[in-house]
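Sequence and fold:
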Amino acid sequence: MRKVIRELIDLAVDHDGRFFPAYQLHYTTEQLRASYLTIAECFAHTRPYDPSESFATALYEMFAPKT
């Protein structure tokens, strides 16, 4: 399943498309960043509101830039 999903995401990104970052984290960091160019900035904006990361999701924990 992971292999097929990654291949489909690559195909979407190659055609300037996007994918929905679903609950199964089968995509890579590179695929997420290629599809959502400002994802790191979005994650960074959450820190002032949740400095202890109490409301962090699995997506956030896997892909947010570490400080």
